[in-house]
Every structure is written in structure tokens, then in C-alpha cells.
Amino acid sequence: MYNGFIKAAAAAPQLRVADPIYNAEKITAEIKRAKEKGVKLLLFPELSITGATCGHLFFQKQLQESAKKALKTISEATAETDMLVIVGMPLSAGGRLYNVAACLYDGELLGFVPRANTDGTVFSPAPSEITDVELDSETMAVMATDLLFAHEELSDLEVAVLFNADIKTPGAAAEVHCAAGALVLAVLSDEPMSVYSKKELINSISADTKKLRCAALYAAPGRGESTTDKVYSGLCAVAELGEVLAADEGTDSMAISEIDTELIIQTRQKEKPFYEADSLHGKVFWGAELSEIVLTRHYSKTPFIPENDFEDFCERALDIQAYGLIKRMEYTGLYRPVIGVSGGVDSTLVMLASARALDILGLPRKNIVAVTMPCFGTTGRTKSNAITIAEQLGADLKIKPIGESVKKHFEVIEHSMDDYSVVFENAQARERTMVLLNLANKLGGLNVGTKDLSEQADGWCTFNGDQISNYDINAGLTKTMVSAIVRYIAEKSEDRILAEALLDILDTPVTPELLPISEQGELLQKSEDSVGSYTLQDFYLYHMVKNGFEPKKVLRLAKHAFKEEYDTAELTKWLKSYTKRLFAQQFKRSTTADGPAAMGFTFSPRDGFKMPSDAQADIWMQSIAEF
Q1: Looking at the domain that runs over 310-626, which CATH code has it been given?
Q2: What is the CATH number of domain 7-286?
Q3: pLDDT digits (tens, 9 = 90+) for 71-111
Q4: b (16+ CB within 10 A) / e for 480-512
Q5: What does the alpha-carbon distance between residue 81 and residue 35 come to, in Å, rounded to a whole number?
Q6: Which residues, in sequence order, are CB contacts of 343 under 8 Å at separation 6+?
Q7: What order of strands is seen across the sheet that includes strand 446-449?
Q8: pLDDT tens-digit profile of 24-36?
Q9: Domain spans, the chain
């Protein structure tokens, strides 16, 4: 089960300057090491067969011929490895000397890619046309800058080979390759070490792969290079869509990770790269039958939450909520946010963001109308926390019990109080929404909704209950994001009463509070008992809905990320449940309230993830059954 993954590596062995025979031994040793790790695509640095710091020794016939012999040794070492290997070397052809990347597979030379931009002191620029090169009496190979190395079995995997200098020079070589279909850029470099080089590489390769919607391998010369004027560190990296998956530096460095070609393709299909796909490249084919690989790359259990710049993430999310609400209040002229508060994390964040909005406008927080509506499933803990938050924020707190109203409604529709069916639950949620909307009308306010992106995905909200509001500022945030932001506010707050209440809310099980509590006043209804952990749900949401992966791939990633928490049976159980609900509950998302996107992915029926309300889930469910 390869799921579009291919294991790739960039390596920089410690070589000797002007000693191709020795260097061939080092390179073949690295090929063997990579094969043992399941690598299928391996990149070495620029001029790695000779060393990049030979100077005018590159003109020496002895060095040139020795490099050819070394290439033959390396080529033979690739036999039966099922690995595309790219090495750098000097190449004399047509009376000129070129700096080239030799591309090898299964004991054969597939072709040469010359460096296009040189300073002209040693190497000639790449020829403008495709050239046939006779390496020796037995070996002919094509040489061109516009070659793509296409995998025979993984049809979308096409690798472009280029040099770091070509990326830096005007002409957009990387863009041209990606426009022609390249998913992976193999970048040979001759960059020395500097105090800034590692950070600059990380920033550069991240920006390039994000901009071009691609993956990239990068390999710079290692520690064996001459230190006459510069020092080399063997900086290597593997990156994908703006994320550096692996990086290494030092003696015999090797960066290894798995590139997800399916993710790149999904991203290109949805985000429409800025470049036009009209460039024609020659294609050279490589690759045998695909086989299982072991995943080593990191997958976050909470992929919607960034692992870096967390404070900036929280502040910007709060600003998006606040300024979205500000615009809606200014447009309507209604400056009183009316919020149903339950003591849960979602309504808590809505109160916090609404307070920020009023602070920005210079309006009193008393404009917030915090309405708690206790009923059959309300506990003292949740009610107490809701009241504490409202009081500490300075909101206008209103306590409106709805139990008697719901009982009267049951009498009207002839529903028994002992029948805890969906009717029992939904009647309470709809009663609360009716109170909030009518109260907003009465007070000249806006009912600000509390449902989050995760609840929209699994439909864990009541149609025409908490599913609807005047404006929903949680619409662009998942449950894990909401919880993370509330925790961030609690940890930075100087109001200890507020902070303690926020932390207690985070420690309270998620519940809609629609079923009666126990005689001891404890919750009997917990959301995660019915729909699964929201951490797991959001993981499924990210990879199956946002990334568009097949369920079997999503399960594979979940097994990798949650191997300490869940076994395969439980992961499968919750993915089946999640998939079924995702399809069955679309009708709620089709009529959802307005609300701001926080991360470019929403369920807005206007410009978010769209699907028909009566789509069939059969093929997705079958995929899970086959896992």
C-alpha cells in the first residue's frame, strides 16, 4: 500500500577533492545505505564525483576521464536497487566542459542535465538544444535542461533536475519544470556553509515548494571539500508544500523522508498554481513495481494547529473572529452580541472574541448578552462556569430556564418526557435558538452562533437549533483549534478567576447537555462517546476532507500518528462513523449561517467545501471495509 508515497533522500558524503575513484566508493556506500532504508529517489550534491572545489583541475583530461570511470562504477551500483540516483560531475562534450547531473537507474545512464547558468570561468552554459553525448564506445546519453524523469508505475511522479544557481537566476527554471508536470525538484547545489546558510535554505526551500506546489530535494557539498577559501557542511533537505520534512548537516549527512505525491496533486487541483501548464519537456522513464514503505515522517495529531508561531496563530484567529463580527455589527447597526452560553468551550470562545470586538470598537462589554438556558441536562459545573465567564468579562448575564417551555411543547406534540429520543434532544436545542433569536430581536442585537467547524463536519448540531444563528464566528475553527485558543487565553490572562474557569471548561467533557443528568448531578451524555475523540475527528477532517485522501490512506496515517493511543479496530470504527455522518449531515451545512473563514477551509455553502446533500457514501465506506 504505497498511497502515493515515495521515500526520497538527499546525501552529502565526505569526499576527497579530485579523487573520483575514492568518491565513487563513498557514493556507492551511500546508495547501499539508502537502499536499506527503502529509498527510491536519491540526490547527491553538485560535482559530487570529483568534489566541487577542484578549480582549474576540472580542465585536466585525467580528472575528466577518471570521473567517467567513476560514473560507470556508480551506475553499476544502482543495478537492482529500483532507485533513481542523481550525481554531479564535470562532462566534456562537443569541445566544451559542462557541469552536469548524471541520472542513473537500474545500472543504466538515463541522461545528463547540464547547469544552465555558470560564471564562464570553468564551465560552459548548457546548450540550447537537446544533445546526444557519447560517454564511451558503449554508452550514449541525451543531455538537456528540459528533461523529466517519469516513474513507470506512479504515473504522476515526474522528477525535474536542476541546480541551485539556476533557481537563483532570472528565468524561472523551477516554474518551467513544474508547469511541465514536475512534482519533485532535485536541486544540486555548490553552496558553502555560512552563519546564515541553514536558515536561508530552510526559508528558501519552504517558500519555493509552497509557491510551486511541489516537493524538493536539496544537496550541498560535504565536509571533504577544500577549505582554502570556504567551508562546506553537507547541508541536505527534503521539503514538500512549504514544510521541511527532513534536514541533515555534517559528516556523511543524509536527509530522508517520504514525499506524498497524492497530496501535491490534490493541492494543485484545488489551489490552481499560478503558472500555465504549457511547457513541453522530454521524458525519461524509470521505476519498477511499487511496494510498501515504512513511514518515518512526522504527522501531527492536531494538524490544524501549527507547531510553530502558536501565539501569532491564536491572536490572528481571534482577530478574524472579532473583525468579522465588527463588520456584521456595523452593517446591521446592531451592536449587542446575544450569545447562548453553556459552560462549554465553543460558547466560551465566542464570548471572548465578542469582548475583543467590542474593545476594538470602544464599546462597553455590557453590550454582550450572555444567556444561559438551563434544562434537563445542565450540570452545576457547566452553569457555574458559564456564569463566571460572563461576570468576569463584564457581560449582561441573563438566566432563562427553558424546562417548562420544553415540557409544554412536548404536550403540544404529544411526546412523553420518558422518551429520550432525538425528539427529546432536538426540542431543547430549538427552544434555545428560538429564545436567542427572539431576544436578539427584542434587544436590538445579533445572535452570535457557537457551532464550530468540527460540529459542522459531523453534523453534531441540531437542524434549526444551534445549526443556525445570525452570524457564526466559530465557523472557521475546528474543535481542537477552539480548545487551543481558549487555553492560550487562560494561560496569558492576569484575571485568575477567569483563567481558572477557562481551564475547568477545558477539563469538562464536551456535551450538548440534552439528556437528563444522573441523580448525583453528573453528565450522562458526552459527545465523544457518540462521535469519537475530537482530536481524532479533526485528524480525519484534515486528511480526508481537506486533503482529499482515500479512507484507507487516512487510516494508515492515523495508525502512524496515534499508534500509542488507538488500535486499528478503534480507528476504523470511528472513521466509519465519521464518514457516514459526513455524508448524511450535509443538509445542515447547505443552510448554515454566515461566518468567517480562518484558514482557507470552511463548509460555507457559498465558497467553502461543497457537496450535494444526497451524495452516496458507498465507495468511501467500501474502502474502509477493505482496509
Answers
A1: 3.40.50.620
A2: 3.60.110.10
A3: 999 999 999 999 999 999 999 998 999 999 999 999 999 99
A4: bbbbbbbbbbbeebeeeebbebbbbbeebebbb
A5: 6
A6: 372, 381, 382, 383, 384, 385, 386, 389, 505, 508
A7: 396-399, 369-372, 337-340, 446-449, 471-472
A8: 999 999 999 999 9
A9: 7-286, 310-626
